[in-house]
Amino acid sequence: MTGPFLIKIAIDNYIMPGEFKGLLYVVVLYGLVILFEFVIRYFQGYYTEYMGQKIMYDMRMDIFSHINKMPMSFFDKNPVGRIMTRVTTDVQTLNEMLSSGIVTIFGDIFMILGIMIVMLSLNWKLSLIAFSVLILLAIATFIFRSKVRITFRIVRTKISNINSFLQETISGINTTKLFNRQKENNKDFKDLSRSYLDIYLKTIFYYAVFYPVVIIIGTLAVALIIWYGGQKVIANLLTLGTLVAFIQYIEKFFHPISDLSEKFGILQEAIAASERIFKLLDHTPS
């Protein structure tokens, strides 16, 4: 958030007045800010991944220990492939949310609020004009979330069905060959794979539509800033540095929003995975 403000200072205090001597200090400070941001992101990424892996290890051990305590009737009702999905794929999905999703979500929210506060403090009228497009973004996000929430749950179910079918088919391959059921099994697997592909392509379609919509809304906000702010600069009611800073801030503003949309998909997958894991853990051992 500091970068655009430093650019504003450089333009208004040094470039426009022709004070090039002090410009060097702003450039050095800008470089130090970027270096500090790099260090923070490094430690954030490392320690969040480390904690995620530790949590995933403990969770897998707990699930495996719980499965070992279950009676034989449990395994008769639950295919081995489905159980394996809980221990591997579903736990990995939760790890993605814990190691990067939650931290990124809070970071993005902090970034959005921080940018809004800085923009309002610089020029509240120009800020309100830029934020006028948020109603369009809210509508697009609501539609996107409602669609993706449903498809992600179906996707996880389809993956579990495929894993269960593969486990049963491979473990019973001798019976399959004995009764010459290779063609029937191929057809069943093709139907399962096609069903998974269809629902996943629908999810991809929603993302493919949503991201360009966010970009268009962000571009509209920039256009409004240039239109209104440009008039104020010409009338000497707004500095050029403030206008440039606003353009950069609004571009930064929409980056975490797009990132939140991506993390929302991870969150939906994690919610669906956690529901299945806790359903497994709810079975009482004999």
Automatic annotation (TrEMBL):
GO MF entry, a single one: ABC-type oligopeptide transporter activity
Cell compartment(s), UniProt: Membrane
PROSITE patterns assigned to the protein according to its UniProt record, in alphabetical order: ABC_TM1F (PS50929)
Keyword Transmembrane helix: yes
GO cellular component: membrane
Transmembrane segments: 22-43, 102-120, 126-144, 204-227, 233-250
InterPro entries cross-referenced by the UniProt entry: ABC1_TM_dom, ABC1_TM_sf, Type_1_exporter
SUPFAM superfamilies listed in its UniProt record: ABC transporter transmembrane region
Pfam entry (one): ABC_membrane
ABC transmembrane type-1 domain ranges (all copies): 1-269
Entry membrane topology: Multi-pass membrane protein
Key words of the record: Membrane, Transmembrane, Transmembrane helix
The protein's name in its UniProt record: ABC transmembrane type-1 domain-containing protein
